[in-house]
Design goal:
By secondary structure, the chain is of the alpha+beta class. The protein contains 13 helices and 18 strands. Helix 7 runs parallel beside helix 8. Belongs to the LarC family.
């Protein structure tokens, strides 16, 4: 089987968190130090690791301590240009893959920095993202992946995956002054890669430019964990204490495949993809029931995924409803605006949850009464693709039933029957 890594980033990622997770897995710190000394900047820093607690959990914290005034002055006032960093890496005679990955990470970082500041990537001053600690973090991470035997270029399967990235919030002081989080370089790297993000309501800098550059360059995909057998987990600590343990979790294991000879979801142990959603809730006891249908339509029009009500008893024995709205993180403001505008509520609760979803597609099938849309849901791709659910669209079947004066159930049955016959014919071809 192929070795695989999954990065779980509930509180984001930075270069030192990645290094800490690798050391936690068992990569000798002495090995990293010896290899990093080939860069020729060993006199500017000291690399150390220690076990720390983040919340109730223990993790490995790796620090790059600058040890001379010259190094600090070089980092904060002069910075380094991309050609200088490339010269350092190429001249170190590192393992081929380490050199290749490290150069690619820094080049992407230079492109992002150059884009947001309007200058040529070759002329970017790397300041905090290209200083000694960032060089050590990036090259050290690539050394660790090489030591583990992780290869995402030369084998059949891509072997480095990463979870969605939390956006963070607030501001941070950087070399260019006070900046809004996510900082521009991180946003640009996410844009360049099309990286999926979400808000976990922690207003701190959670993803650093170094961390973003590493994962957007090396990760094969972002999202839910791939099918794998976990052998070991590394725990890399961040610098801050947060409301939840500030730890990057690095899973290492073997890539596994899923059976493809059955349509039974329960028997195949398939894990659907996960996505972040919000559930907005409010209780109402002083609104006309006639308004509820209109509110449903308004919420769906602004991007709600689902809307539903539940009857309940409220204070002073008043009958009321619990109005719940399921929406993507990006649609919170729009859905809340509808709730405050169209209902009498004075407050809305937000619940962050995960939703397991299948991939889906609308297909079309012909029946003797007319065309019907069919929603097809599946998991996996290629040879691993497994169809889980097939459902004709209710409104299409209902419209045909009304117009043709035939039972709705008969239209639905014909649509399903013709869809399966079409699939069987295509497989035979």
């Amino acid at each position: 089987m192929s070795k695989i890594i999954y990065l779980q980033c509930p509180t984001g990622i930075s270069g030192d968190m990645f290094l800490g997770a690798l050391v936690s897995l068992g990569i000798p710190l002495e090995y990293l130090i010896n290899k990093l000394n080939l860069l020729g900047i060993g006199g500017e820093y000291r690399l150390r690791a220690e076990l720390v607690r983040r919340g109730t959990q223990e993790a490995t914290k790796v620090d790059v301590d600058l040890v001379c005034d010259r190094a600090r002055e070089h980092q904060h006032h002069h910075g380094r240009h991309l050609p200088e960093i490339e010269k350092i890496i190429v001249g170190a005679q590192l393992p081929q893959r380490v050199e290749k990955w490290s150069l690619a990470i820094f080049r992407n970082l230079a492109i992002a920095e150059g884009s947001v500041h309007g200058i040529d990537p070759q002329k970017v001053h790397f300041h905090e993202v290209g200083a000694v600690d960032a060089i050590v973090d990036i090259v050290g991470t690539c050394l660790g992946l090489d030591w583990l035997g992780i290869d995402n270029n030369e084998r059949e399967f891509p072997l480095l995956f990463c979870s969605e990235q939390p956006t963070g919030g607030g501001t941070v002081h950087a070399a260019h002054g006070e900046m809004t989080v996510p900082v521009p370089a991180v946003l640009k790297l996410w844009e360049m890669r099309g990286c999926p993000v979400y808000s976990n309501n922690i207003n701190k800098e959670l993803v650093t430019p170094t961390g973003a550059a590493i994962v957007t360059t090396l990760a094969s995909d972002f999202g839910a964990p791939p099918s794998m057998s976990i052998e070991k987990v590394g725990w890399g600590a961040g610098s801050m204490d947060l409301a939840v343990p500030n730890i990057l979790r690095l899973w290492v294991g073997d890539r596994t495949t899923k059976p493809t000879n059955t349509h039974n979801f329960a028997q195949t142990n398939i894990s659907p993809s996960l996505e972040k959603i919000y559930v907005l809730q409010t209780q109402i006891d002083d609104l006309s029931p006639q308004a509820i249908g209109y509110i449903f339509e308004a919420l769906f029009n602004v991007g709600a995924l689902d809307v539903f009500t539940q009857a309940l008893g409220m204070k002073k024995s008043r009958p009321g409803i619990l109005l719940s709205v399921v929406c993507p993180p990006a649609k919170i403001a729009d859905c809340e605006a509808v709730l405050f505008r169209e209902t009498s509520t004075l407050g809305v609760r937000r619940l962050l949850q995960e939703r397991a979803i299948l991939q889906r597609q609308i297909q079309y099938v012909e029946t003797e009464y007319g065309e019907v849309r069919v929603k097809v849901a599946w998991k996996g791709n290629g040879e691993e693709k497994l169809i889980i659910n097939v459902q004709p669209e209710f409104e299409d079947c209902a419209e045909i039933a009304r117009n043709q004066n035939v039972p709705w159930r008969e239209v639905q049955r014909l649509a399903l029957q013709n869809w399966y016959q079409k699939q069987a014919s295509e497989m035979q071809q």
